[in-house]
Design brief:
single chain; about 200 residues; alpha+beta; Cathepsin B, Chain A; 2 domains; seven-stranded antiparallel beta sheet; 7 strands; elongated
Length: about 200
């Protein structure tokens, strides 16, 4: 009986230690992100802003990121090359990630916080977020994010009617509160974003 009790105590102790270690790692990672992420950042790589005719934001957003990585890519051509689209022509996040990975890029489908998103942007490559087109609409949209500060998110929107800024590096400015509402899609993962890198 005593041996069983002793074994149970050891197991509980090991579980507590494991949980404490995981919490410590989580806190350390988030502290690193907090301290290493600048308060404002803008990606200024050579690129151009193009507009989609219909539902091709998956291709246009991906092409924008790839061009920032030095790849000569057209949004409509990229969209047309994607197979397994939904019946209405839209592309689920998993399908887009698999398509880009098959083309040889290092792609990650992530779910995170605003700070984690800003940290990814500060690495110098646009990050694609999966959002609603606006806080009051339920149409889903892929949107490359190219910058941020303490009040706003700066995006390159391939939907021309969403353009609200004239700038070399972005064409849409979104307040943090509105962005939070757009980012909460209610489908798939919470706060979804996609990173694309050149596969070394």
């Amino acid at each position: 009986m005593k041996a069983k009790m002793h074994l149970k105590k050891k197991i509980v102790f090991c579980v507590v230690i494991c949980i404490a270690v995981l919490i410590g790692i989580f806190l350390a990672v988030n502290l690193y992100i907090l301290l290493s992420t600048p308060k404002q950042y803008m990606i200024t790589s050579e690129n151009y802003i193009d507009y989609q005719p219909h539902y091709e934001c998956s291709g246009y957003s991906s092409a924008y990121v790839l061009r920032s990585l030095g790849q000569d890519t057209d949004g409509l051509e990229l969209y047309n090359a994607i197979s397994n689209k939904n019946n209405d022509g839209t592309v689920p996040p998993v399908t887009l990630v698999e398509f880009l990975a098959e083309k040889g890029y290092s792609v990650k489908l992530c779910s995170g916080t605003m700070m984690q998103l800003k940290h990814e942007i500060s690495k110098g490559t646009p990050v694609i977020v999966f959002v609603r087109t606006s806080p009051k609409e339920n149409y889903y949209h892929y949107l490359p994010i190219v910058g941020y500060d303490e009040e706003y998110i700066y995006a390159v929107d391939s939907l021309k009617y969403m353009k609200n800024a004239e700038n070399e590096y972005y064409n849409r400015i979104i307040g943090n509160s509105d962005f939070d509402k757009m980012w909460e899609t209610g489908v798939f993962r919470k706060n979804t974003y996609i990173t694309i890198r050149l596969d070394n």
